[in-house]
Design a protein that fits this description.
alpha+beta; 2 domains; two-stranded antiparallel sheet; 23% helix; elongated; binds zinc ion
């Protein structure tokens, strides 16, 4: 088994602190979303980048009903609604 890396204890609620060195390297800030995945008994954590719900774009994002939508998709949606 690979024993490199930083060792941390799990607290009574199952929480583990991501070491600051890794948070800094990956630019993980408070309230960022992390995806946790398990495969073959190995957990991986990946930072979820903010992106448009429809096209995945990371540019010109606006929040609507707690979801991120880019300006382009928002305009497409508005055009469709206004044409009806
Ligand atoms: Zn979009």
């Amino acid at each position: 088994m690979n024993k490199t890396g930083i060792t941390r204890k799990v607290d009574n609620l199952g929480r583990v602190v991501i070491p600051k060195t890794y948070r800094d390297k990956l630019q993980i800030k408070e309230n960022d979303t992390i995806n946790i995945n398990m495969e073959d008994q190995i957990l991986t954590m990946t930072k979820v980048e903010d992106s448009c719900l429809f096209c995945g774009s990371k540019k010109d994002l606006i929040t609507f009903e707690n979801k991120l939508i880019c300006n382009k998709c928002s305009n497409k949606f508005l055009a469709k609604v206004l044409i009806k």
